[in-house]
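Priority: low. Protein: WYL domain-containing protein. Input follows.
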Amino acid sequence: MPERYVGRTVEMIYLDRQGRITQRIVQVRRIQGGRVLGWDVNKRAPRSFDADRILAVRTVPRHVS
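Result:
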């Protein structure tokens, strides 16, 4: 995952260690040592992800109220 996503909220498709494909909304905090560290919006918890298991990523549009 490129550094440009740090500080952004992204939607990602992720292959977990059990081989399941999941969709996550994550606030990316940092990228370090092949890991993406962030806040999982739906689980309301910090999470880390293996960068090589991220299948797709896109930024989530910011809503203006």
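The chain has one domain: 3-59. The domain at 3-59 is CATH 2.30.30 (SH3 type barrels.).
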